[in-house]
Amino acid sequence: MVNRKELTPESSPQAAYGAHLRRLREGRGWTQEDVALRMEYSSQHISAVETGRKPPTLPFSRKADQIFGIAETSESLERQWRELRHGVLLEGFPEYVGYEGRAVEIRLFQIGIVPGLLQTPEYARALANSAVQRGAITPEHADERLAFLAERQSALERARPPMVFVVLDESCIRRPVGGSEVMAAQLEELVRFAARPNTMLQVAPFDIAERRPFDLPVNLLTMSDRSVMCYAEAQTQGHLDRETASVVPVLTAYHQLQAEALSHTASVAMISQL
Q: Which CATH superfamily is 93-119+150-273 part of?
C-alpha cells in the first residue's frame, strides 16, 4: 500500500472509471494481483487502468463486470465504458444509433451539412477539425467522433441493408466544407449513394421557401415490427421519441417535404452539375 496512488475521479471520465474499478476491487478486499488473476490480465494492466494511464476497453469492462458480478447493474463497468466512449456525443444520440443499426427504413432530413451516414472521411474530418479549432472539442474527442461515425456507416453495410430516404436542404450541397477538392469528392459520393438500389436522395431547393416543414434536422427510423421512432436535435441535446402520437405527425410532415422536394433524378442532376 506504500505505492498506492491517490486518484482524482473528477479530473476526467477515464479517471472516474479507474476510481470506480478500484472501489469495486477494494470493496471485495482484493489486490490488483487478485483481479489480474481472475481477469487474465497482468497486474500492471489493472494498475494502469485504475490510475488512468491506460484507457479501458469493452472486452476489459465486460470481463470485469463478470468477475465482480455487476453486469447489467447500475455499477456496471461496461455501462461506464459506454458513457465514457460516447461522452462527446449529444444526449440521446448513442441510444438512437443502437436502433439505427437495426432499422429496416431510415429517413433523414438535414440542413447545412451532409448527414453523417453519407459523409466521406475527409468531409467528416474537416468538420471535426473545425470544432477543435473553435475549442468545442479536443483532438482526442475529434478522433472518437470519426471512429464512431465509421462504425455507424459500416453497420449499414449488412446483408440486408435498410431502405434509406434522404432529403437534403439545398444548403447541404452549396455550403463548401473542407475546400473544393473535399467538397467535390463529397458530392461525387452523394451521386454514388443515390445509385444504390436501396436509397432515395432528394434535394429540397431554396425556392420551396415556407413550404419546407422542418427548421431542424430530423431522423426517422422504421423497425422490423413497423414501429417508428423519431430523433431530433437542438444545439445541446438530442431526443429519441417513440410515442406514436408525436411521431406520426413528423412522419406525415416528412412525406409532405418529399412531395415538395426535387425528384430523385432531378436531385442527382443538380448535384452532378455542382
A: Endonuclease Chain A (3.30.870.10)
pLDDT tens per residue, range 139-192:
877 887 888 888 888 877 888 899 999 999 999 999 999 999 999 999 999 999
Contact indicator for 247, 226 with CB cutoff of 8 Å:
no
Work out the burial of residue 223: count CB atoms within 10 Å of its CB; fewer than 13 is exposed, 13-18 middle, 19 or more buried: middle
Asked whether the beta carbons of 23 and 9 are under 8 A apart, the reply is no
| Domain covering 9-85 assigned CATH 1.10.760.10 in the classification | no
Exposed / middle / buried, residue 210 (Cβ in 10 Å: 0-12, 13-18, 19+): exposed
Establish how many alpha carbons lie within 13 A of residue 196's alpha carbon, considering only the half-sphere containing its beta carbon: 18
Place of cell 439545398: 170
